[in-house]
């Protein structure tokens, strides 16, 4: 169905989106926000088919995110009593969000994420040790209260990802750091598992409707995977202080990007 897409994009277009996927995979593996890089690149080349761009983006993203999750799980402690319920509920939220994507005006979504990112940036700036030192809340690992809080966060952010809102990975990490009290490396590991579920939920809705350019998606997925390997290696060797700096940079970039989009109408 989309066999002519490669010819339409040309060599420059294919190299452009593959480079974007590589960088997105690296950034997303560390602090989330890879969609800020990858999705706009696709939309730039496919402005008349935004749904096709969204579906193709999800395929590439889920491969990179799964790779990052696997790498983190081998190097970082993750409590499955908390992570599995959060991922399951997030998948349901993503399914609901993907089905509701056409019902909410894009400007409303952009305004919500802009306000959220500004608040996150200010909070992170004022709390210099946030995410560097673990300060757990809601009881010990695996306690019912913490499981419920993480599941609630997963549901809301999963819904956001289904709608295709930007910054899902960053929102997950900030929620786990700011609300639950994880340090950045542990938060990144859990967020990757949950983000796999939210990507899968959205893809379940997009793929059956023919909203995926599979050839391009597979090529981008390989690039995203390569970036994810680089990003997880940097995150697990450089530690939470490094991730905090990258996270702040990505949040700042998200603010500029969304504000610019709103300003241009």
Key traits:
about 0% strand; 10 helices; single chain; about 260 residues; globular; mainly alpha
Describe, in plain words, how this protein is organized in 3D.
The protein has 265 residues and is mostly helical. Helices cover 79% and strands 0% of the residues.
What about the largest sheet? none
Can you tell me the residue ranges where pLDDT is under 50 for at least 5 consecutive residues?
Answer: none
- Total number of strands: 0
H and E string: HHHHHHHHHH
Structural class assignment: mainly alpha
- Radius of gyration of CA atoms, rounded to a whole number: 17 Å
Number of helices: 10
Write down the overall mean pLDDT: 80
Percentage of residues assigned to helices:
over 70%
State the separation between the terminal residues, measured CA to CA.
Answer: 32 Å
Report strand %. Answer: under 5%
- What spatial form do the alpha-carbon principal axes imply? globular
Helix/strand layout:
Layout lengths: L4 H27 L3 H11 L4 H26 L4 H20 L6 H21 L17 H19 L5 H13 L3 H23 L7 H25 L1 H24 L2
Helix pairs in contact: 1-2, 1-3, 1-9, 2-3, 3-8, 3-9, 4-6, 4-8, 5-10, 6-7, 6-8, 7-8
Compact summary:
This protein has helices at residues 5-31, 35-45, 50-75, 80-99, 106-126, 144-162, 168-180, 184-206, 214-238, 240-263. By secondary structure, it is mainly α.
């Amino acid at each position: 169905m989309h066999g002519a897409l490669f010819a339409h994009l040309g060599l420059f277009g294919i190299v452009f989106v593959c480079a974007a996927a590589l960088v997105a995979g690296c950034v997303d593996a560390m602090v989330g926000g890879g969609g800020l890089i990858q999705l706009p690149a696709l939309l730039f080349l496919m402005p008349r088919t935004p749904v096709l761009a969204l579906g193709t983006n999800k395929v590439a993203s889920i491969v990179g995110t799964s790779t990052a999750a696997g790498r983190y799980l081998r190097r970082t402690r993750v409590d499955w009593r908390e992570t599995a319920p959060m991922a399951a509920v997030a998948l349901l939220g993503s399914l609901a969000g993907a089905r509701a994507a056409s019902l909410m005006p894009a400007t409303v979504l952009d305004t919500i994420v802009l306000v959220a990112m500004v608040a996150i940036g200010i909070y992170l700036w004022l709390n210099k040790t946030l995410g560097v030192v673990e300060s757990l809340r809601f009881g010990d690992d695996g306690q019912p209260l913490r499981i419920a809080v993480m599941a609630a966060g997963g549901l809301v952010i999963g819904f956001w990802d289904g709608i295709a809102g930007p910054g899902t990975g960053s929102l997950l990490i900030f929620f786990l750091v700011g609300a639950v009290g994880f340090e950045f490396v542990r938060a990144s590991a859990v967020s990757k598992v949950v983000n796999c579920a939210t990507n899968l939920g959205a893809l379940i809705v997009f793929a059956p409707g023919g909203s995926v350019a599979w050839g391009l998606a597979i090529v981008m997925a390989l690039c995203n995977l390569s970036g994810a390997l680089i990003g997880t290696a940097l995150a697990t060797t450089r530690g939470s202080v490094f991730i905090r700096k990258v996270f702040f940079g990505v949040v700042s970039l998200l603010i500029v990007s969304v504000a610019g989009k709103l300003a241009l109408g």
